[in-house]
Write a structure and sequence with these properties.
alpha+beta, Helix Hairpins, D-amino Acid Aminotransferase, Chain A, domain 1, 5-stranded antiparallel sheet, 672 residues, 6 domains, OB fold (Dihydrolipoamide Acetyltransferase, E2P)
């Protein structure tokens, strides 16, 4: 019988070999299941014989225990930014400047690499073993994310060489494929959560997770492209470096070309501007590097950027087409969103786009979009198509003003103009009876973070409303299996699961019920704050507008929306029906967290659009948990909570090395 130590060594050797075949050679020899069996056997061996477990064992990729926070790592060699160029003229000027600096007549060649749309990473290997991995951060200091890097199969835990250099800092790009984003978003849609917009933001958020097991579930990968500090190794050219990285076990992007002239560089950039959408991952340009390291040394760098490298950025992809028609989609508050029907459809980011959002009525008026107009269409975050501008010079005089419906496209009820402080829109003024609005509210009521009714997503909500079985959220609690079985697509198990989910939802508590009622300006977090202030429905109903306005994060406007909702015939009827049904109308008091408030002494900044919190609500929550919510990022900021379209505050946080949290990570931090 093979000794445990010998078998463990053999399994590690096999797993490292197959990992290399998969990530570096892109030619796997065994199935994922066969790989998992080998890993499971090694895991069992190491569990039975802990002394056999090594820091670079493939079992370390499954993720260990969560960390409390991020340690700071000072980069031995700064991770500088790269200057951008946007056209052939910019590249030719770069070439002229390089040749002038290195001296007349000296040959200069370039490597041209795809600019992967991911997150820059530094991986330090000491005597061949991964010691620490860090984000770019400010360029001088980054966050230690070694716990997450170890879960990424493409990252070698040790260099594949018998004579490793004493020190080697490898730099690369961590990224996610589009297919993995689709897989994750499908699950989020099933869980009634908002899908992520793009691979880059999700990659950044995943690397900053505190729990490595969660990182392991999201399949990130790597392309290595450079080095920082190194000792005990001779590197002379970029092409030689890439070859060395491959022999050490790093995946290197195969679409790198060594070009002898700037004309060759420009031609290769133009080639990939067309081909990039055929890749399995996102790119946003090319990176042009002087190949010779001695020339790089002479070229040097400014305070911020090296003089030997230039990024060539692809233009934001736009399609030019025509507004052939307009449809109006309906939101849960009855708002009508104009959607342009594109004629002809346009090809953007590898997909055919036939519909594009036009935001709201005031946006359409501001841009003066007309039926028949020639328009530019982009994909927001390369995901959401939207009209961005009108090509007014292309007008022929046959274009027509967009006419807003005076009747709701779903129910035929009246449509009215509704103004806010910054814009206006048209809304269906039939909130109680409009099936479109009712279906949206039913869908929102059932969300996982609210009443959490398994099996009640968008399609089922529409089906229940269109069939006439549900006209109000309380109608859900009167559904019978016989009624559900009469609907298309419902068999016994599906019907019973839905009824069981509805029954379980009765005990969710007051906070989740309030959030589920679609009260304007009251999302999940504000509902929780409100339920903490008034932990029973009776106390909430007895509160005056003035009392409501004094709740953290509320104020007079939000207080009026809450008061108006409950103190009108519809709201009063809802509460009576919930009482009769047996829905829990109280909120359990939260036990004080062990060790005090989770954000005590911490300063946080919130930026971007969040999925489950509004800005006022999350800032109120931060304060209630002992933290300080401020509006600007500084060296004193402990965390930046970043949603979609985070903008300059995110850039500032990265520059200062401030820890950036996704919405999910924030909720884990506070133990929600």
């Amino acid at each position: 019988m093979t000794a445990p130590a010998e078998r463990a060594a053999e399994l590690r050797k096999q797993l490292d070999y197959h990992n290399h075949k998969y990530y570096v050679d892109a030619s796997p020899e065994i199935s994922d299941r066969e790989f998992d069996r080998l890993l499971e056997e090694l895991t069992r061996l190491e569990k039975d014989h802990p002394e056999l477990r090594t820091p670079d064992s493939p079992t370390q990729r499954v993720g260990g225990t969560p960390i409390d926070g991020f340690e700071k790592v000072a980069h031995r060699v700064p991770m500088l930014s790269i200057d951008n160029s946007y056209n052939a003229g910019d590249l030719r000027k770069f070439d002229t400047d390089v040749r002038k600096a290195v001296g007349p007549g000296e040959p200069v060649s370039y490597t041209v690499e795809l600019k992967i749309d991911g997150v820059s990473i530094s991986m330090v290997y000491e005597d061949g073993r991964l010691a620490v991995g860090a984000t770019r951060g400010s360029g001088e200091v980054g966050d230690d994310v070694t716990h997450n890097l170890k879960t990424i199969g493409a990252v070698p835990l040790r260099l594949d060489t018998t004579t490793p250099p004493k020190l080697l800092e490898v730099r690369g790009e961590i990224f996610m494929t589009r297919a993995e984003l689709v897989r994750i978003n499908r699950q989020r849609v099933e869980d009634r959560e908002k899908p992520y917009e793009n691979t880059r933001n999700l990659t950044a958020g995943t690397l900053k997770l505190l729990d490595p097991k969660e990182c392991a579930r999201r399949k990130l990968t790597l392309f290595a492209y450079g080095v920082g500090a190194f000792e005990g190794i001779d590197l002379k050219t970029q092409t030689g470096l890439l070859d060395t990285l491959k022999t050490f076990g790093f995946p290197v992007n195969p679409h790198t070309r060594h070009c002898q002239t700037i004309d060759d560089v420009i031609a290769y950039c133009d080639e990939w501007d067309e081909k990039r959408h055929d890749l399995a991952y996102d790119t946003d340009g090319m990176v042009v590097k002087v190949n010779d390291f001695a020339q790089r040394q002479r070229l040097g760098a400014t305070a911020k950027v090296p003089r030997w490298v230039k990024a060539y950025k692809f233009e934001a992809e736009q399609g030019i087409t025509r507004v052939g028609g307009v449809e109006f989609s309906l939101g849960k508050f009855g708002e009508l969103t104009p959607v342009a029907l594109l004629d002809p459809p346009v090809r953007l980011s590898g997909t055919t786009v036939s519909r594009a959002s036009m935001h709201n009525a005031s946006w359409v008026e501001e841009k003066d979009v007309r039926l028949g107009d020639t328009v530019a269409v982009e994909k927001k975050g390369e995901i959401i198509p939207q009209v961005v501008s009108v090509v007014t010079d292309a007008r022929t005089g046959s274009e027509k003003k967009i006419v807003w419906p005076d009747k709701c496209p779903k129910c035929g009820g009246p449509v009215v103009k509704e103004d806010s402080a910054t814009s206006y829109n048209y809304v269906c003024d039939n909130p109680g009876l409009c099936p479109g609005q009712v279906a949206k509210r039913i869908e929102g009521f059932a969300r996982r973070t609210r009443m959490d009714i398994d099996g009640l997503g968008r399609e089922v909500a529409i089906q229940l409303v269109d069939s006439g079985l549900v006209r109000s959220v309380t109608d859900l609690y009167g559904l019978t299996k016989k009624q559900l079985l009469a609907l298309e697509g419902f068999a016994d198990l599906k019907a019973q699961n839905l009824l069981d989910g509805i029954a379980r939802s009765k005990d969710r508590g007051l906070a989740r019920l309030i959030a589920a009622l679609s009260i304007y300006m009251v999302g999940d977090n504000m509902a929780e704050v409100l339920a903490e202030a008034f932990p029973s429905m009776d106390e909430l109903l007895g509160a005056s507008e003035e009392q409501l306005s004094k709740v953290k994060g509320f104020g007079p406007k939000r207080a009026k929306f809450v008061s108006d909702f409950f103190h009108n015939p519809v709201g009063e009827k809802l509460v009576q029906e919930f009482r009769a049904i047996g829905v829990k109308l109280t909120q359990d008091r939260k036990a004080a967290p062990a060790g005090g408030l989770p954000l005590a002494g911490k300063t946080l900044v919130v930026t971007g659009t969040l999925t489950r919190h509004d800005r006022t609500g999350i800032e109120a929550l931060i304060k209630s948990l002992g933290g300080k919510a401020t509006g600007s990022v500084s060296k004193k900021t402990d965390y930046l909570v970043a949603g979609e379209n985070a903008g300059s505050k995110l850039d500032k946080a990265r520059e200062l090395g401030v820890a950036v949290l996704t919405e999910d990570e924030f909720e884990k931090l506070i133990g929600k």
